[in-house]
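hey m, so remember when u said the C-alpha cells were messed up on ur end? i reran from scratch. heres the input so u can diff it against urs
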Amino acid sequence: MNQPVRIRIAEPSDAKQIMAVINSAFRIAEEFFCFEDRITLEEVERLFTTGTFLVSESDRVLAGCVYVELKDGDRSYLGLLSVDPEQQQGGLGSLLMSAAEQHCRELGSRFMDIYIVNLRTELMPFYQRRGYVETGTLPFPPEVKTTQPCHFITMTKALEG
C-alpha cells in the first residue's frame, strides 16, 4: 500500500475487475478444498442489484473489494472480502471491513452478519478481533464441489455508534 488508497462505492463498470480480484484472492485461500472460481461475471453483476460493492483502489487499480447487503430490519450482510494477493497483509482487508461497517451503519443497520467456511481456520481469529461473535452454522452450497466436507460458521457484530 505505497500509493494512497481510496475506498469508494463500486459502479457496474467495475464488475470485471471485482470478479478478477475475488477469484484471485479466493483461489489462493481456498485451493486446498475448492478448485472452482469463486464467482462469475454474471454473479457479480447480479449482486449489484441486491447490494453494494465497496472497492479500494490506488492509481485507478482495483486492489480489493467487499460486498454488503442490507437485510430485513436493522441487519446487514458482509461477504466476498477480497484483497489482491500481492496487496495482502498490509491492512487493506481491515480498511475495507471498517468502510463496509460504516457504510451500513450510516444506512441504519445495527448488526453485521458474516459467513466463514469452517476449513478457513485463520478467519475466526481475524473476525473475533474485529468484534464478531459466533452465532451458528449453515450448510455449504451443495452445487459447489469441494474436496472435503465443509460448512459455514455464522458470525455477527453489533454496529454501535
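this time it looks ok to me. The two ends are 29 Å apart (CA to CA). if urs says something different then somethings off w ur setup not the seq
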